[in-house]
Sequence to fold (367 residues):
Amino acid sequence: MSSSKTISIIGGGCAGYSLLNKLKNVSNIEIDFFIGKNQGINNFWGYWEYDKDIPDNILSGKWNKWKISTQDGEKFFESSSHPYCVTTRHNWISYCKQNTNKKNIRILKEDIMEINNKIYNKNNDEIISDFIFDSRYTNKSKNIFLQHFKGFLIKTETDCFDDEVLTLMDFRCDQSKGMQFVYVLPFTKKIALIEPTIYSYNIEDEIYYKKTLESYLYDIYKIKKYNIIKTEKGSIPLEHNNIKKGPYFNIGINGNVNRKSSGYTFTFIQKQSILIKNFFLNISNDLSLKVQSNFFNFLDEIFLDVIKRKPSIGPLIFYSFGKSFNGNEMSDFMNNRINFIPFMKMLFNLPFKEFIKSFIRCLFNYG
Ligand SMILES: Cc1cc2nc3c(=O)[nH]c(=O)nc-3n(C[C@H](O)[C@H](O)[C@H](O)COP(=O)(O)OP(=O)(O)OC[C@H]3O[C@@H](n4cnc5c(N)ncnc54)[C@H](O)[C@@H]3O)c2cc1C
Fold:
């Protein structure tokens, strides 16, 4: 790319900052980054480590062992090459902002406005750039299947968490509102994030997540006394939306990077940012931002169809899923990589009748 290109990045969330991070050292580009007025509260982002390109000093935790628990038993996983890492929004943003005090990068704390498919800055000037990367979430549909959750960072009086093993999903909780599990990040023996997480169309009120927290802590750890240090709350669409065509390029969740079955997004945002960087470095000629393959989208559709029809078998599905993989195979699967043998084991272990039914339903609907 010989002449200088102008780029506008819209939205100061994970995708916007991740893209800034990848582009900040690319030459011959001018970046206007509209981060928005609302910076959002701090929260944790977890991912399996593959490329080691995120430094350990911005991590809040790193685990080589994790487990999935159900009423029928627990399945343990271990991986030394692909540990599960957790960073925070604030740490990630500070890291991405490092060394951006340059003439060619402007960070603007303002909301952009959109009128008739044109976007305007706070002075009502139209934003015109060679490339516009937009992470504002634009899906207005009311009926979206969600993964919604409330996380409680708590401190207990006595030692009770095994800080070497993270609980990816514990299904030993109420299943009446949809498939629910509790995600536990044990930072120390006394401090953990406990996050009740539900798959359904409706976000529950605050009391519901709190009740799950209380009964979970009592049923599993026999704890009644604890302090809540802070909370986080969110919902992730388990669907993709229609992508706008250029000069707008949708990025982040708005660019369908979220894995539809799991809601994992952080890793895929990094992959999408690399695709964009490679384009500006002339490593690729094509500015294709598609991160989720048709194969994984189809598998995820089948899984979601089962969960929507029969949420009560969620725990059985994940337990069977867990039996199919070792630690590396599971992290591979969660990161859209799969080998033939674990894939066949997974097909063999999953509840056959329900998956065949959903396979046929999806085959005729998909596309
Ligand atoms: C609490 C929480 C925990 C999560 N945990 C994980 C996890 O552990 N692992 C994982 O992989 N994924 C996780 N996710 C999912 C995903 O990684 C996040 O949702 C991620 O923030 C998505 O990034 P994004 O940039 O697409 O969207 P956002 O982070 O929502 O960014 C969009 C940005 O656009 C800005 N904006 C909106 N309107 C305007 C406007 N008019 N002008 C300018 N800016 C505007 C918003 O203020 C926002 O900052 C989590 C999500 C939440 C909410």
